[in-house]
Specification:
By secondary structure, this protein is α/β, with parallel strands linked by helices. It has helices at residues 79-88, 106-120, 136-148, 167-180, 191-203, 210-215, 218-235, 247-258, 269-273, 298-310, 352-362, 368-382, and strands at residues 6-16, 21-29, 32-37, 43-48, 53-56, 58-60, 91-99, 124-130, 153-157, 183-187, 239-241, 263-267, 315-316, 400-410, 429-439, 442-446, 449-450. It binds dihydropyrimidine-2,4(1H,3H)-dione (DUC) and zinc ion (2 copies).
Length: 490
């Protein structure tokens, strides 16, 4: 007997990509997929995947891990706990944040966040760089250098006191991104409206968590989307609008895309499954459902599903932002805190895929291919991780989640592996569960147990890739043939 042909063979499953579902064996050698076919020769290890789906590991391209919030609070999770919870939920790659606050030097920020991830990560990872202090030094030197070093995406905030950038700074960053081919992701809400509404609500004694939803009016989203899209058009820079929450927001993105602008859109389970009513609970309990933007209405949920079906929105991420429901997190300002004093965010790395699989595949909202596309292939393409990540093909990293489509699981706080202490989806029963998860060929979750150590996740350097390429549609005033010869691009 010679050596087995493969290190691992996943045998007899239904393999799904963004375009096809087919019955095949998957042969893995080392960290990569070496063969996909019928009746592959034996592997050193074998997984019986009959009556299972064999899917690409999920990519969660928006999650906050060991990040200092704008209010100075640390997330509940470490890289180890957050990425363990990701793995249990079928996610094998995360894009988290390296968050520059005002006064911080970007190279140091990246070094600090990289050290935390290197020590703790269980799944593979990379970063969006949050820029809140767009100094000359940053825009001209630090940002280009960081992009060249493999951090080819940036996040800007249009709201939050300590993080937001003014329009002029946003334009500087958009231009630097264009020149260096990086994607720019944006939290787009009108800061003034939110601050003004919040102040008036509090002055009148409306302090409960449910008023958080009132303080983020729908028009704060639409105004910021329109302004952002106009700025991106001036610079001809591709953008990703994070956490779209309203029908009108999705329509604005559809219109921009229809006119040829490179605008991408993301939504999250919070906006597909929750409404503002979820914040209306006794005492401060509603704080567990507080996130920004807030969950809206059933009509918005339907519009967002439609936008996903039509391709107006391309990704569904968790926006995992874990704060415990105690003095270390949501209740850090005490038991009488008002909604302005509570950290925004929900945990979601572990529940994102099971919740979506249940709605899309088990309950039939969309098909398995679209599930794979929205949760793995599209984020891989937009953030230039594809084809190494986000699909099942020969030569790609063997990041695979093996799903039992019939397994019913009732979600509970106790079964979660992150450190938040609760899940806003507790009590919900889902059909379909990722039972075995492989990262680069290694089984990291099996039999409900974690089989990988902290620090085994790997950094994924990225260049901008096709999604970050400008469209070439110059704004007239930026085009030297139409602006009396003024050269505004270097
Ligand atoms: N909103 C954010 O902008 N970030 C983290 C979590 C949230 O709810
Ligand atoms: Zn955000
Ligand atoms: Zn976020």
């Amino acid at each position: 007997m010679g050596e087995p042909a493969f290190d691992m063979v996943i045998r007899g499953g239904a393999v799904a990509t963004a375009t096809d579902v087919f019955k095949a064996d998957v042969g893995i050698r080392g960290e990569r997929i070496a063969a996909i076919g019928e009746r592959l020769p034996p592997g050193r290890q074998e997984i019986d995947a009959r009556s299972r789906y064999v899917l690409p590991g999920g990519i969660d391209s928006h999650c906050h891990i060991e990040q200092l919030s704008a209010g100075g609070l640390m997330n509940a999770d470490t890289w180890e706990s957050a990425t363990a919870s990701a793995a249990f939920g079928g996610t094998t790659t995360v894009i988290s944040f390296a968050a520059q606050h005002v006064g911080m030097q970007l190279p140091q920020v990246i070094e600090d966040y990289s050290a935390l991830a290197q020590k703790g990560a269980i799944v593979d990872y990379c970063f969006h760089m949050i820029v809140s202090d767009a100094t000359e030094q940053l825009v001209r030197h630090d940002l280009p250098a960081a992009i060249k070093a493999g951090h080819a995406s940036i996040k800007l905030f249009m709201t939050y006191d300590k993080l937001r950038v003014q329009d002029e700074q946003a334009l500087d960053v958009l231009m630097t991104a264009r020149e260096n081919r990086a994607m720019v992701c944006v939290h787009a809400e009108n800061h003034g409206m939110i601050a003004w509404m919040g102040k008036r609500l509090l002055e009148r004694g409306y302090t409960a968590p449910k008023y958080h939803a009132v303080s983020h009016p729908r028009v704060s989203e639409t105004e910021a989307f329109e302004r952002l899209i106009a700025m991106a058009a001036l610079i001809d820079q591709p953008i990703m609008i994070f956490h779209v929450s309203t029908r009108e927001g999705a329509a604005i993105i559809r219109r921009a895309r229809g006119s040829g602008q490179k605008v991408f859109g993301e939504t999250c389970p919070q906006y597909l499954f929750m409404t503002a009513q979820d914040l209306d609970r006794p005492g401060l309990e509603g704080a567990k459902w507080m996130c920004s933007p807030p969950p809206r209405s059933r009509d918005d949920q339907e519009a967002l599903w439609q936008a996903l079906a039509l391709g107006d929105l391309q990704t569904v991420t968790s926006d995992h932002a874990p704060y415990r429901f105690d003095a270390s997190g949501k209740l850090s300002a005490g038991p009488n805190a008002n909604f302005k004093q509570m950290a925004n965010g929900q945990p979601g790395l572990e529940t994102r895929l099971p919740i979506l699989f249940d709605a899309m595949v088990s309950k039939g909202r969309m098909d398995l291919c679209r599930f794979v596309q929205l949760t793995a292939t599209e984020p891989a393409k937009i953030y230039n991780l594809h084809p190494r990540k986000g699909t099942i093909a020969i030569g790609t990293d063997a990041d695979i989640a093996i799903w039992n489509p019939r397994r019913k699981v009732t979600l509970s706080d106790a079964m979660m592996h992150d450190r938040t202490g609760y899940t806003p989806f507790a009590g919900r029963t889902v059909t379909g569960w990722p039972e075995q998860v492989l990262r680069r060929g290694a089984l990291i979750v099996s039999d409900g147990k974690l089989q990988a150590s902290a620090g085994s996740g790997r950094f994924l350097p990225r260049t901008g890739g096709p999604a970050a390429e400008p469209s070439g549609r110059l704004a007239p005033e930026m085009d030297s043939r139409r602006n009396f010869g003024a050269r505004l691009y270097d």
